[in-house]
Write a structure and sequence with these properties.
By secondary structure, the chain is α/β, with parallel strands linked by helices. The chain folds into 3 domains: 151 residues, 3-Layer(aba) Sandwich (Rossmann fold); 211 residues, Rossmann fold; 33 residues, no CATH class. Helix content is 46%, strand content 16%. The chain is built from 18 helices and 14 strands. A 6-stranded parallel beta sheet has the order 1-11-10-9-12-13, with helices on both faces. Helix 10 links the parallel strand 7 and strand 8. Helix 3 packs antiparallel against helix 4, helix 3 packs across helix 10 and helix 6 packs parallel to helix 7.
Length: 461
């Protein structure tokens, strides 16, 4: 690995033509939510609230324990101390009138977009929805795999630095397609969260009536354990900061969760046919999350130089330019590889959340890559299409977990179970095998539950 003659302080350049296997692992380590890092402001707030310095993991464990024990009282106390919001059990839930008024006052064009996006999501999620399967492999045997929607789910919507009506769409609509009847949305009591009119209007348009003014680990704990003001759910989904992610991990097992998600990430694979302006824009779109990992992998050295120029030019025009610049410096890279095959190998080892292939033959490259949360093919398919409108959910596995984890979908809200029915003749036909294995395992009651039906076959007729 060598430094490039055109390396700048804006984003790191790596020549991986002679190696590179450890490069992406090193970058992932920097993004990994270890739970032991906190900002100076966060340290001060922790000391003020808890009376002593705690790691984020210790903070989350304390909050979850208190909410589990004390219920609504602890939820309100942490909402007051951490979010500086004075709420009561009655004012925690957003009134129906507020949802209606937000919808009434919303930009009609926004509501039209929400409806079109909802239709896109419904179309895709309905097409991939699991359906019951029944087979009759032998006479008298009927086997069914049944899919039943969860009864109640909770959705975390961020609201710290920006409002996210798109998160409501990408989580609630798949749940609705699955048949979930009760959906509870939690968002921090901030202008970007539970007081954001666009987010509230989106909830109303989708028919969501439960929206709560709480966020962070305390909201996750309340949804997991339940309290007077916020009944427990079966599954918690949606993004959030480190404390939300750690809280979801903590309550997993009491409820299901979508994933333990870290910062957003993208790898762009590009060749000489790619537009440097397009590539730069796609990298900046992920770095804008700040933190967000934005990596270009290419075998065209000229493209790297052109992309650097475009990054600098486009960065100056962005609203969050300072945060985006920091993310590029900390978590960005322009990586030069030997060829397309090397690019695919390196990408597969990283297993990125988002993968955008901007080459002459993206179908060929995606066929060689197994590990990606969501892939976007071609020069005119920016990741933002998936973030906002295409149809698949934008809630995706990060940190290399897409090697075994899947993105959120309507199927994520289904509970699968089997249904088995044997007639007496079919039970008799399989009895010998069952009895033999049960006796080998020393489970004679199991064996007897079958053999007794052979001894007295007509007793239940």
């Amino acid at each position: 690995m060598t430094s490039s003659p055109f390396t700048s302080s804006l984003i790191r350049f790596v020549d991986a033509r002679q190696g590179g296997e450890a490069i992406l692992d090193e970058m992932r380590e920097k993004l990994s939510p270890r739970g032991d890092l906190v900002s100076p402001r966060g340290r001060e707030l922790t000391k003020a609230v808890f009376g002593k310095p705690l790691t984020p993991i210790e903070v989350v464990e304390t909050i979850c324990r208190d909410v589990q024990r004390e219920g609504t009282e602890a939820l309100l106390r942490y909402t007051r101390s951490l979010d500086q919001a004075e709420l009561t059990a009655e004012s925690l839930r957003v009134p129906a009138a507020d949802l209606q008024s937000a919808h009434d006052a919303a930009d009609p064009k926004l509501i039209e977009s929400i409806r079109r996006i909802r239709d896109n999501i419904v179309t895709f999620q309905t097409a991939i929805l699991h359906r019951d399967v029944t087979i009759e492999p032998k006479p008298g045997v009927r086997l069914t795999q049944r899919y039943v929607p969860m009864h109640r789910v909770g959705i975390c919507v961020p609201g710290g630095a920006a409002a996210y009506p798109s998160t409501v769409l990408m989580t609630a609509v798949p749940a609705q397609v699955a048949g979930v009847k009760q959906i509870a949305v939690v968002a921090p009591p901030t202008p970007f969260g539970a007081y954001n009119q666009d987010m509230l209007a989106t909830c109303h348009e989708l028919g969501i009536t439960e929206v709560y003014r709480c966020g962070g680990a305390q909201a996750v704990a309340a949804m997991a354990y339940g309290c007077d003001a916020l009944p427990a759910v079966d599954k918690i989904v949606g993004p959030g900061n480190l404390f939300v992610a750690l809280a979801k991990k903590h309550v997993f097992g009491t409820v299901d969760i979508d994933s333990f998600a870290g910062p957003s990430e993208v790898i762009v694979i590009a060749d000489e046919t790619a537009s440097p302006a397009f590539v730069a824009a796609d990298l900046l779109a992920q770095a804008e999350h700040s933190p967000g990992s934005a990596i270009l992998i290419t075998w065209d050295e000229k493209l790297i130089e052109s992309v650097q120029v475009e990054l600098q030019s486009q960065l100056e025009k962005l609203q969050r330019s300072d945060l985006t610049r920091d993310a590029l410096a900390d978590f960005g890279a322009l990586i030069l590889v030997r060829d397309a095959e090397h690019a695919c190998q390196l990408t597969d080892s990283f297993a990125p959340e988002h993968l955008h292939i901007e080459t002459a033959d993206p179908e060929s490259q995606i066929a060689r890559i197994h590990n990606s949360g969501a892939a976007f093919l071609g020069h005119h398919t920016p990741v933002a299409l998936g973030d906002y409108a295409a149809g698949p959910s934008h809630v995706l596995p990060t940190g290399g977990t897409c090697r075994w984890a899947a993105g959120l979908s309507a199927n994520s809200f289904l509970r699968s179970g089997s249904i088995t029915r044997f007639e007496s003749e079919a039970t008799a036909a399989i009895a010998e095998d069952v009895i033999r294995l049960a006796e080998k395992e020393g489970l004679t009651a199991h064996a007897n539950s079958v053999s007794i039906r052979q001894a007295k076959p007509n007793q239940a007729e």
